[in-house]
Amino acid sequence: MPHQAPASPSLPQNDGAITRAERAIQLDLTRLGYQWGTVGSLPQVPVVKGLPGAETPTLTWWVMLAEILVTLLKNHIAVQLAALERDPTIEKAEIAVNQALASAIAAEVASVKAKITHNTSGGTIWSRLEEDAELALLALGEEGLAARFEDHSRKLCAALELGTANEADFGSAFPRSLETYRTLFQDIPTPAIAWCFQDDTEFARLRVAGPNPVLLSRVDALPAKFPLDAARYASVVAGDSLTAALAEKRLYLLDYEALSVLVPGSYDGQAKYAYCPIALFAVPPHGASLIPVAIQCGQDPDTNPIFTPSVRPDEQWGWDIAKLTVQVADGNWHELFAHLAHTHLVIEAVAVSTRRHLAELHPLWALLVPHFEGTMFINYEAATSLITEGGPIDRIFAGTIASSQQMAADARFGFDFTQRMLPNDLKARGVDSAEHLPDYPYRDDALLVWQAIHGWVKEYVALYYADDAAVTGDTELAAWAATIAGEGQVKGFGPITTRAALVDCCTMILFTASAQHAAVNFPQATIMEFAPAVTGAGWQAEPLERHGHDRQEWLSYMPPAKLALKQLEVLYLLGSLHYRPLGTYLSRDFPYPAWFTDPAVTGSEGPLVRFQAALTQVEQRIAARNAERRVAYPYLLPSQIPTSINI
Ligand SMILES: [Fe+2]
What we know:
The protein is built from 25 helices and nine strands. It is mainly alpha-helical. The strands form three sheets. Strands 3-4-7-8-9 form a five-stranded antiparallel β-sheet. A two-stranded antiparallel sheet has the order 1-2. The chain is globular, with a radius of gyration of 25 Å.
C-alpha cells in the first residue's frame, strides 16, 4: 500500500492502456492479501480472511491503548486493595506483581511523551507525537516500538483478566447496595449516570441522547400487543389524552421484539435473563422532551402487565424493575445491533470491497481508505476475543454466546444501507420533525455532521467526475458496488449511476465509519460502564405483578460485582480511545505525513480546507447547543469523532 494518496488520481476510463494494465495488476496483487472469509464467532458474516499486514495499528494507537489500560489496571488494583481492607486473607502477591507492571508501563508511556515535549509545533500531544521524526531515531524504530506497546497492552489485558479470578476480591457475588457498584470506581471518576439513572427524566433522555439513540419510533396507534388504555394514559400524563397525543404525533415507542431470538444463558451456575420489553414515551402537550409513560416487560400482554410511573411504595419498585428490563434490552440492542453489526461489520464489508476493487490510483480509494484505518484489526480482535465463548459478551450479556453471535450476524444481514442513510432513517422512524419531537440531541447533531460530510464528498466527487456519464463509465466503481452488494452482502446497496447517488453513498460510508460509530461507541465509557444503569443481562425473571416489589428485589436484578467490574473495564477501554479526529487525514505510515497530496484537494481554496472549516462551525454550533441543553451531548462534536472505526 502506498505511503500517501496519489497526487494525480484518475478514473480507469481516462487512463491509457499501460496504466489500465498497471491498475489491473495492482488490484490482482492486492486481492491476494484481501480475500473474503468468515469467522466462526460471526456466522457467515463476510470479513477479510485473516488479518492483512497493512491493517495493524500505528505506534500512536498502541501508546494510547496502553495508557488507557494502565489507568484500568491501577483502578483494578485499587478495588482489590479496598477489598483487602475488608478481608485480609485475600492473596496479595498478584496485586504486587500488577502494581509493578502498571508502574513500569506507565513510565514508558510517559517516556515516549517526554521525548516530544521539546516540540513546539503546537497541536495536541498526539499530533505532536505523529509529527516528531526524532522517534525514528530511537533504537527500536517505530515498528519495534509499536510491537513493544502491543506487547505491553496484551500483558495489561492479561493482568486485568487474571485479577478477576477471585469473586472474594470484589465482595459478595450479588451486591445488595448501589454503593458496591460505585466503589468499583477508585482511580476512575464515578460517572454522573451513577447518581441519576433512577430518574425518569434521565431514563427518557437516554432514548434521544444515550448509547442507543436509533431505536425510538413514532407511533400512530398503539400496537395490539401493548393494550394501554386511555384512562391509564391520562393518569400518567397530566392534562393529556391518548387520542390527542396520537393525533398530534407525540407518542414514541421502543419495541425490543427482535431480541426474542436470544436464548438465555448462565454464568457460574446462575441463570441470566433476556427481556423483550415494549416502552412508551410521550412529549407532553406544549412540552419539548420525552417522558416515560408505560412499560410492558415482555411481548405477551396476557402474562406481562403494563407498569407506569408511580411513587406509591407498593408500585414504585415494580416501575424501577420495569425500567431495568428496558435498560438490559437496550444494552443488548446497542452492543450487538447498533454498534457491532450496524457500524463495525457493515464498514468491514465496504473496506474489503474497496481494497479488492478500487485501484490505488482511484480517487475514491483515496477518499475512503483513511476511514477504514484500524477497522479490520479491531473487528479481528472482537471476533477472536470479545464475542467468543468465555469472552466478555458471553459473560456479561444475557444470551448464550451462540445466540448472541447469531443475532448480531442476522442484524448485519438485515441492515439496509439506503434505508439507514440518516435522513431516510429519521423519516422512517417518524422522528425527523423537530416540531413534534423538539428534544433529540442525536438527530440534531448528527444532521449537522452529515451535512458537513455531504458537502465535502460532493466537492470531492465533482473534482474527478465531470458528469453522470463519468460515473457509469467507471468500471472499477461498478465492480466495487457489485461486490459490496454481492460478496459483501450489504442489503440496499445497488448499482451507482449518477453523481448524486455516488455522493449519498460515500457520505453514508464516511458518516457510518466516523459519526455514527462515535455516537454508539463513546457512551460505552461515560454511561454503560456503570452496570446498574445499563447492562447486558438481568439476573431475575421479568416481573409478572405490578405490586409487591421492593428495593432488595430491584437490586437482585443487577449483575455480580465481579461482572460489573469486567463490564466497567471493557467498556471504559472501548469508549476512551479517540484516535485521529474527523477531518484529519494522515498516512498510517511513520512519520504520518498528510494523506492527500492532490493540490486540487489540498489547495487553500480546496474542498479539504472547506470541510475542516465546516467541521469547526459544527463544533461551535454543538458547543452552543450543549450550553443550552439540560445535559450536554458530546458524542457528535467533530473533535470527538474519530475518522475511522478503530476501537
Ligand atoms: Fe466500536
